[in-house]
Design brief:
The chain has one domain: Rossmann fold. 42% of the residues lie in helices and 15% in strands. The strands form three sheets. The chain has a seven-stranded mixed β-sheet with strand order 5-2-1-6-7-11-10, with helices on both faces. Helix 3 links the parallel strand 1 and strand 2. Helix 8 packs antiparallel against helix 9.
Length: 251
């Protein structure tokens, strides 16, 4: 093999190696690192507070029934069919410390009573034992103050006791957990307590209430439709597969 042929072969090999190295380098640049993928996964679900959106506030405290918090967040956090976000959905508690639900899960509140933004609606959930909440003046006063600026106040289950204690719905219809209405009427005679064995949800002016637990989806969906429209409510219902719950034993 003469010198020119050897030189040509060496040149081709060098170009090939250089090309391979360049492609590998380019691929490394274009492909995200594992660390970046993990970081994106941790942050992509965060929804920064948007002051241009109406805000739905979910009251929390130790012992709260988590289904009544989750139901409301489930409903109002869903976007429109074209992916548009409609609401800020925030949790509120007396302090920034994590609260422990009745079921044992730990939830970290977004805001406290002191820095809570203006709310479009406040949802008041329940606990199996409401004594501590009803006798907590800070919780009761927060509900009173919020009522001055919110357009809607919703109670679920025994959250009706906090509404009664606050006095904000005196003279209004309200329903509570199944079996709790008689005592609620005795404790708060100014409320117009509905028959909880027959009525799941009731609305009276800016106030609405439900039996709680999974019936909390009803109160959330009712208000969602009022704040948006029927088509969006139906979209959210389908998003949540609520039709499957309604027909789960039909097969």
């Amino acid at each position: 093999m003469n010198f020119l042929n050897k030189l040509l072969i060496l040149t081709i090999v060098s170009l090939f190696i250089s090309s391979c190295n360049t492609n590998k380098k380019d691929n490394k640049i274009n492909q995200p690192t594992a660390k970046k993928v993990i970081e994106d996964t941790l942050t992509k679900h965060l929804k920064p507070f948007d002051p241009n959106l109406p805000t739905i506030g979910l009251l929390m405290y130790n012992g709260v029934l988590q289904s009544e918090v989750i139901a409301t967040s489930d409903v109002f956090s869903k976007p429109t069919e074209d992916g548009k976000r409609l609401f800020n959905v925030i949790t509120i508690s007396q302090t920034k410390s994590p609260i422990t639900t009745e079921e044992g899960m730990h939830f970290v509140p977004d805001y406290t009573f002191d820095n809570c933004p203006k709310l479009k609606a406040l949802f008041v959930p329940s606990a199996y034992d409401m004594y501590a909440q009803v006798h907590n003046n800070k919780i009761v006063n927060f509900i009173k103050e919020s009522n001055k600026t919110t357009d809607f106040v919703v109670s679920n289950c025994a959250g009706a006791q906090l509404i009664g204690e606050s006095g904000i719905a005196d003279g209004k219809k309200i329903v509570t957990w199944i079996g709790g209405g008689v005592q609620l009427q005795k404790d708060y005679p100014k409320l117009i307590v509905q028959n909880d064995s027959l009525i799941t949800y009731v609305e009276d002016g800016k106030f609405s209430s439900s039996n709680g637990n999974l019936a909390s989806y009803i109160s959330a969906l009712k208000l969602l439709e009022k704040l948006t429209d029927t088509s969006h409510r139906k979209f959210v219902e389908s998003y949540l597969y609520l039709d499957r719950l309604q027909n789960w034993d039909s097969n």
